[in-house]
From TrEMBL:
It holds the Pfam family ABC_tran. SUPFAM superfamilies: P-loop containing nucleoside triphosphate hydrolases. It comes from Kibdelosporangium banguiense. It is a peripheral membrane protein. Its main location: membrane. It is found in: Cell membrane. Keywords: Antibiotic resistance, ATP-binding, Nucleotide-binding, Transport. This is ABC-2 type transport system ATP-binding protein. Signal peptide: none annotated. Belongs to the ABC transporter superfamily. InterPro entries: AAA+_ATPase, ABC_transporter-like_ATP-bd, ABC_transporter-like_CS, ABC_transporter_ATP-binding, P-loop_NTPase. SMART domains: AAA. GO terms for molecular function: ATP binding. Residues 9-235 form the ABC transporter domain.
């Protein structure tokens, strides 16, 4: 049974400080049952502290959290079987195989081992069941960590940067695992630095910085709200820049000698004009992405 109204998580004005540092400064949001909810932000934005408060690992200085209808702090034993947590740094038992790791985690939750083969299959480790954890690749260890968080069939899964430090192939493979978890009806709350990943996987995202939420909505709605122009790219020399500037809908044209870039908020008439001139081959259209929204809200300066 989830929280009333279909909300698995209700966060209301939580705050947490460490000395003079205000890590979380009045964060509020809800997560619906079965939703894939992302928390995005630069380093030091307060993402992990927010997750730890929701999970019951930290006590907020003020504010309230309701997790499956319960206050997670102080930690409630009856909540633990209903949540799964995969932390940034995964810890495994020494010298155990992938199967033995899952069997051990299952025993800690007091559940049987009949679902272990299913878990290994879901995360793509069936062929590594008898391989020791320290012999697995980084991507395989990440998938095993998620399997350990799922072995007791929790209602909510918390994932803190689950694809960090993975190569592109391993990261894409893990996306399939996350989609499978969602398809099983689980509520997922996760943090990531990969904006393309969040745009593809999340139902909604909250963008945080300096302990507060700057924006929250579906990725598509956030991108639409940015009202950024489209960039149409043509190979240099296909059309003269002066001719392109006369097209209806063109805001700006630049030509660096390699690529001619057309900036427009009305791409349809511009593309129509290009089609009339037979110049669509090799053309690229770049529209705004969630990364553009993120940078617009949080700035472009480097964060250590």
């Amino acid at each position: 049974m989830s929280a009333a109204g279909g909300d698995a998580i209700v966060v209301s004005d939580i705050r947490k400080s460490y000395g003079d540092l205000q890590a979380v400064a009045g964060v509020s949001f809800t997560v619906a049952e079965g939703e894939f909810f992302g928390i995005l932000g630069p380093n030091g934005a307060g993402k992990t502290t927010t997750l730890e408060i929701i999970e019951g690992l930290r006590e907020p200085d003020s504010g309230t959290v309701t997790l499956l209808g319960e206050n997670p702090w102080p930690r409630k034993v009856k909540l633990l079987p209903r949540i799964g947590v995969q932390l940034q740094a995964s810890a495994f038992f020494d010298k155990l195989t992938a199967r033995e790791q899952l069997e051990t985690f299952a025993s800690l939750y007091g559940v049987g081992t009949k679902s272990i083969d299913d878990m290994l299959e879901i995360v793509g480790l069936s062929d590594k069941a008898n391989t020791r954890e320290d012999k697995l690749s980084g991507g395989q260890r990440q998938r095993l960590s998620i399997a350990c968080a799922l072995v007791h069939d929790p209602d909510i899964v918390f994932l803190d940067e689950p694809t960090a430090a993975l190569d592109p192939q391993a990261r894409r493979n893990l996306w399939d695992v996350l989609r499978e978890i969602k398809a099983r009806g689980k509520t997922i709350v996760y943090t990531t630095h990969y904006l393309d990943e969040a745009e593809i996987l999340c139902d909604r995202v909250a963008i945080m910085d300096k302990g507060t939420i700057l924006a929250m909505d579906t990725p598509a709605a956030l991108v639409r709200g940015l009202d950024a122009p489209a960039h149409i790219l043509l190979e240099h020399g296909v059309l003269p820049a002066d001719e392109v500037r006369e097209f209806v809908g063109v805001d700006e044209v630049t030509d660096d000698g390699v690529v001619l870039t057309i900036i427009t908020r009305k791409p349809a008439p511009v593309l129509g004009a290009l089609a009339e001139r037979g110049t669509l081959d090799g053309l690229q259209v770049r529209t705004a992405t969630l990364e553009d929204v993120f940078l617009d809200l949080t700035g472009r300066e480097y964060r250590a």
